[in-house]
Structure formats: structure tokens, C-alpha cells
Amino acid sequence: MKKWKNKEIESKSKFKTLNIDGTCYKTNLTSKFENRKKYTVPDAKKVISIIPGTIVKVFVKKGQKVKRGDNILILEAMKMQNRIKSPRPGVIKSLKVKEGEKIAKGILMIELE
Amino acid sequence: MALKRKIRELQERREKVLKGGGDKAIEKQISMGKLTARERIIFLLDDDSFNEYDLFVEHEARDFDMDKKVLHGDGVVIGTGTIYGAPICIFAQDFTVAGGSLGLMHSRKITKIMDHALKMRMPLIGINDSGGARIQEGVNSLAGYGEIFFRNTLSSGVIPQISVILGPCAGGAVYSPALTDFVFVVDKISKMFITGPEVIKTVLGEEISMEDLGGAKVHSEITGNAHFYAESEVQCFEQIKELITYIPWNNSRKARAFKPNDPKKEYKIDNIVPDNPKQPYDVRNVIKAITDNSVFFEIQERWASNIIIGFGRMEGQTIGFVANQPLVLAGVLDVDSSDKAARFIRYCDAFNIPIVTFVDLPGYMPGADQEHAGVIRHGAKLLYAYSEATVPKLTVILRKAYGGGYIAMNSRHLRADFVFAWPGAEIAVMGPEGAANIIFRREIMGSDDPEKVRKQKVKEYKDKFANPYVAASKGYIDSVIEPQETRKILLHAIEVSQNKSSSGPKKKHGIPPF
Fold first, then answer.
1. N or C: which end of chain B has fewer CB within 10 A?
2. ipTM of this complex > 0.90?
3. How far is B110 from chain A, CA to nearest CA, in Å?
4. Reported pTM
């Protein structure tokens, strides 16, 4: 009786598999779980916006050499002019934003070489 | 004669004020599919039980030509009434009057009824439908919100506080509902957010509709800010009334007892849980198999549904149920499910509701996203809530109870009063596959047929540890029971836990990980 019931569940449903500690469980997944972000190793050569705002000033040009801590741009956000500094010494490989542009959080602004 | 004239004057004054923002504004409210503030109260409360106060309150604002404006009742209705005979304090913001905006007198009316609810130890229901702070009244509006938040906090755990979002509730206003016990939302009507679509568009250039930003579905499925979701206002009021039957009037009372009833026969408790621990099933059927009339009143049904919380009755008494749900994400604990269950446990503890926990979980959800979202901190809330709770705490292990999950789900070690296990229960440090891979790694790797040896070792481990008897031999489980004995044994356990006394060390308050 019970076995028959289990087979019934198995055949009728579209359960997915979830591996916990080496055991694969049949279950439904949530959309939050399915849409979760895969972790990626942060790249120190990429300057990413950590707050949404407006680029009010860009201090550097493509190919320009910068030291660690040099001002590279101003990102105005929450009524504050945030000076974004170079995280490392290097050469500006590409500028992905221009003055006056509104950007979201997590946007690549500048790439170093 | 003079008195008659004065009575007529009163009637005329009342009539004028009861029209709120006037016919045009009322028409607009109806066209949005919403009821008016007083209609809502009348729908919710017992017939003829509503008494309104502060009908003639007027605002005192002078700036920006406000002195020329008459705002009836200052945009909010307050009063007392009953729901199924339970006394209730209620306020409802009136969107037809200046968009239900909150000014000084508006907030004073709300705080007056809040003070009354706390003083008289009776539940408070707040119906929110407001455009937000009344900008013309400046800092007075902010002061008003602050006074409300303070009272929400003061009343928390003393009287039940219920928030109903029936319109916009934006900016600082959202924090009053967030501080209350239960938040009700209605599809297409409720909107809650800190910053609205306009601001987001100006600042970020991102376009998002109010519905997608903070509609009823968002808060009942994604954020977990709402506890109950309804398709219509009337359905929402039915949910509130049902909730009121499960909870006590205040923290020094017990919830009302109802006439006892047996569970329905179609819920056959022996047939619900599959033998194979990898197979899913709906744990709500286990709850329904032991509650009166097989009724289970679920809370936060659509959010973090890998854990189930809600109320049911056994022999007429309200019980709070917490259960892992193998049907969703195999019933694992994660950030959201720990948060959801922990808050519910604290609610039950504050309001003298015994807690029954059903355990069937493989452990915690692995993944960088969970670790980075703070599963340590959030998971700790569950340990804290169970350890701290002093109401009767009963546990039934249905099937799997592995590792940290076993400890967290109201184990003996966190001071469960009684722990029972079904014969198919597996209490172990981890699942047999994972455990065998670690313990017998050398044997498996060194063998000519690793897969065969692995299978053999998994079986070996299973035979030895995948049962309730190792835990029972240590006294961590009080009794291994047959599924069909569950209701009877739980009822007995509750009966003998009635005079539970437990006092920890004296302290002002603990520091829970929130």
C-alpha cells in the first residue's frame, strides 16, 4: 500500500533533485533558490559601483597611469559626492562610464590593466 | 426644547464629519476597488459593536494655507469594538481625507487608541491607507510616526498587534506594520516600500511599477514582510477574524478554548510519510492528521515555504506548529526559514501558546549565497528562540533529523519538554551517504571496486545509525511512538506541562542575533 503510494508521487510529479551532504533528495525548488547568484571571485582590476548614482566627474583618460589611491572619478549618490579612488596601481584600460551618466549598483565603471 | 436643538446640532455635525473627504473622494476610493475607512471597520467588527472616538478632532497646522483647510477627523478613524466577542482597539486611516496623510492630530488619535489598547490589555488592529507624512506639517509628522513606533515597541509581546495594509503605506510609515505581530495584505491594493518608483526612477533611472516594487505578492512571497495574503478586502477581514480566534487578548491570558473535535478520518497519519528519506511529502497533512477538524491556519504560506508555521487546535486549545517541509527545498533550514520560524516561536512564547515541532530535515542549505547572506547569524535566531521559549515545547521527529538541523529543531538539548520519534526516524550527525564517505574514505578509495564498497558502507552505517534507538538509548528522545499514537501522546504531554515553571538567570533582556 505504502510503496504503491510512493511510486505514485514519483511518477506524477516533476520533483527536482537537491544534494545535501552527498544525499540527493527529491523536492520542489523555490524561484529564489533557482535564481540565486553564483559566486564569482572579485577582480581587483575592475572598479565596480557600490552605490547607485550619477558620474559627475571623470579624472582619468584611457591609457593613463594611476597610482593606488589616485582619484579616478566622482560618483554622486545620496546627495554626497563620493570620490572613487584607484584600488591599485595600473593603467586605465577602459572607461565604461561618462560624465553625467546615471548608473546602478554593481556596474563596471573602470577597468585597469 | 433647547436640548433637542443641541441634539440636532450634534447629529448635523456628525453627519458632516462622517462623510470624510466628501462624495467625490469617496467615489474615487471606490473606483480603486477599495472600501472606505468606516466600511472596513464595520466589515471587520461584530455587528453594532463599533464605537468611534475623536470624531471632531481638527488639525492645528497654519503654514501653507493649511489654516483654510478642514480635514474631517484629520484623516483617521479610531474606536473600539469586538470580534467574536473579543474586545478590540482599532484605527483606520481615511484616504479620502487629504490622502490619509499623517499630521500631528492624526497621529495623536492613533497614539490615543494605542495607549488605550495597552492600558486595557486588548488587541490593536491598524488599517493603513495613507499617502505618508503630511508635508505641510513638517517635523510634527515625523514626531507623530516616532510616537507610533515607540508605542508599537512598548506593546510588543503584551497585546497582539495586527496591521492591515489596504492602500499605500510608504516611507517611514511602513515601520509601524513592521514592528507589529502580523501584517495582512490584499492583492492589487496593498503597496509598501521605503522609496517609491518615482524616487527610484529619478535616482537610478530604473523603472519599476508599484506592484512589482512593493505589492501584496512581493511582500508575501519575496520579502516575508507580510504574513497573510488575500485576493480581496473581504477575504482579508475573514482571515483577521480567524486569527483573532487563535490568539489571546493579552500576554497574561490563554487563547480561548473551543469545543474539542477529532481530526477528519481522511487524514491517515500512517500513510503520509514515505519510508525513503529522499522522498518528498506535504508535512501539512501530518499537522492536519492531529488537529481538531483537521484545520490548520497557516502563516506566511508563500514565503520560505521550506518551513511551515501556523496555528491549529487540539482538544480545543490553540497550538503553534513548526514543521520542516520536505516538499520544498527538501525542508532544509536556510536564512529565511530560520528567520520565519524563530519569530513565530517568540510569538507563541509571548502569548502562552504551546509549541509542537515536527522534524524532518537534511540539515542546512549549502552555498556561497547562503553563507554570504549570513546563515550563521540568521540560523542562530532559531536556536535562540527555541532555547529562550518557556511555553510547553514538544517535538516529534518524523523521519530525518541530521546534524545541526537536529539540534536546532527544538531538541532536548535546547530544553524541549518532551521529544518523541516515529519508528522511521533517523537521528544522526549527517545523512548515511555523507557519513560513510567520510568515515570509510580509505576503505572506499583503496578498494578495487570503490562504488561497491561505498554502497556496502552506506548500508552498514544506515543499519547502525539510521534509527531513533541510538538517541533513545541516551535519553535524548523520551519515547519512540507509533504515528497513530501521536495526537494522544501530544495531548497528554500538553496536559502534564500545564504548570510548567522555568526561570532562567535574572537579566534585563538577552541579545538575540537580530
1. N
2. no
3. 32
4. 0.92
